[in-house]
């Protein structure tokens, strides 16, 4: 896996002035976490291989050009890393602005309100203003204009969860969870740019290879893939970690 520390020869580096030693092969993001430094992120989780798509976790590394993603950059002996600078703050707010510019601004009535990583990260990077067509959403606008409903409609065909493309930030966590956690390969991405969306390739979840394991729902950082019980009665006040007996994989889930 990309982010968790691996066993290997010890590597010593400096992050935000703190000296830390981690095993070779550890990502800069994980090394920072081990030093108690939290780097903003959206596409990385401890459960999945590093992917490097959201560009929120960028850092500055002495001697290295540009601002590499900390989740996909392995540590090197003597590295000097900065995770909080004015430039990084500007870059992260710019990235968040672009995400929010194409996301519904219905947080107060959204089922994920208070439990949404997009919302959390907007706060964490200090986003206060969106310059790019704030309040408009590509899929909603197209739906209002009567475009192909199969392409843009919310999919409630699965009995346990719904899929709302308007809220998708295409971080690929669901696709990767389906592949890496469940080994099902039921999801992919179709389209590019504003048209990019998660797809089962069959039109809806019910008539796809999806086995309803919930790995994609658990991986989703927004309300794009949302349990129907949460939509109906709200976020549970407590969670119990259990092991799914559905198949032989033995995934652990937080159950209501
Ligand atoms: Fe590193 Fe998304 S968390 S690029």
Question: How would you summarize this macromolecular structure in one to three sentences?
Answer:
With 256 residues, the chain is of the alpha+beta class.
Provide keyphrases for this structure:
binds FE2/S2 (inorganic) cluster, Alpha-Beta Plaits, Ubiquitin-like (UB roll), two-stranded antiparallel ribbon, globular, four-stranded mixed beta sheet, 256 residues, Formate dehydrogenase subunit alpha, 14% strand, alpha+beta
List the helices and strands and how they pair.
Layout: E1 10-15, E2 18-23, H1 28-34, E3 60-61, E4 80-82, H2 86-101, H3 117-124, H4 138-144, H5 149-152, E5 161-163, H6 173-182, E6 188-190, E7 197-199, H7 215-219, E8 225-227, H8 228-233, E9 240-243, E10 252-255
Parallel strand pairs: 1-4
Antiparallel strand pairs: 1-2, 3-4, 5-8, 6-7, 9-10
The chain binds FE2/S2 (inorganic) cluster.
Description of the molecule:
This is Formate dehydrogenase subunit alpha. Belongs to the complex I 75 kDa subunit family. In the C-terminal section; belongs to the prokaryotic molybdopterin-containing oxidoreductase family. It comes from Thioclava arctica. There is one protein chain. The model has no long low-confidence stretch (mean pLDDT 88). The radius of gyration is 19 Å and the shape is globular. 25% of the residues lie in helices and 14% in strands. The chain contains 8 helices and 10 strands. The structure holds FE2/S2 (inorganic) cluster. FE2/S2 (inorganic) cluster binds next to loops.
Strands of the widest sheet, in order across it, are 2-1-4-3
Helix count equals 8
Distance between the termini: 28 Å
What does the main sheet amount to? 4 strands, mixed
Content-based structural category: alpha+beta
Query: How many beta strands in the DSSP annotation?
Result: 10
Query: Any idea what the CATH architecture of the largest domain is?
Result: 2-Layer Sandwich
Percent of residues in helices comes to 10-25%
Which blocks of ≥5 consecutive residues have pLDDT under 50? none
How would you state the average pLDDT, rounded? 88
CATH topology of the largest domain: Alpha-Beta Plaits
Shape: globular
Organism: Thioclava arctica
Family: Belongs to the complex I 75 kDa subunit family. In the C-terminal section; belongs to the prokaryotic molybdopterin-containing oxidoreductase family.
Protein name: Formate dehydrogenase subunit alpha
Keywords: 2Fe-2S, 4Fe-4S, Iron, Iron-sulfur, Metal-binding, Oxidoreductase, Repeat
């Amino acid at each position: 896996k990309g982010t968790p520390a691996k066993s290997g020869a010890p590597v010593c580096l400096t992050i935000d002035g703190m000296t830390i030693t981690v095993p070779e092969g550890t990502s800069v993001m994980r090394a920072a976490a081990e030093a108690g430094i939290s780097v903003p992120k959206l596409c990385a989780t401890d459960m999945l291989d590093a992917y490097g798509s959201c560009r929120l976790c960028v850092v500055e590394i002495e001697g290295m050009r540009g601002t590499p993603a900390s989740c996909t950059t392995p540590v090197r002996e003597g590295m000097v890393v900065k995770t909080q600078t004015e430039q990084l703050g500007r870059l992260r707010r710019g990235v968040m602005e672009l995400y929010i510019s194409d996301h519904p601004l219905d947080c107060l009535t959204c089922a994920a309100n208070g439990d949404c990583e997009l919302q959390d990260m907007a706060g964490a990077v200090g986003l206060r203003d969106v310059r790019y067509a704030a309040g408009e959403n590509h899929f909603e606008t197209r739906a209002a204009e009567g475009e192909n409903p199969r392409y843009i409609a919310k999919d409630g065909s699965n009995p346990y969860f719904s899929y709302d493309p308007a809220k998708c930030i295409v971080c690929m966590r669901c696709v990767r969870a389906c592949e890496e956690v469940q080994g099902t390969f039921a999801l992919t991405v179709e389209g590019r740019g504003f048209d990019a969306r998660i797809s089962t390739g069959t039109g809806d979840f019910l008539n796809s290879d999806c086995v309803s394991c919930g790995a994609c729902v658990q991986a989703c950082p927004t309300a794009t893939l949302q349990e129907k019980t949460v939509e109906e009665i709200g976020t549970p006040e407590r969670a119990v970690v259990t092991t799914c007996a559905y198949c032989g994989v033995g995934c652990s889930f937080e159950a209501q």
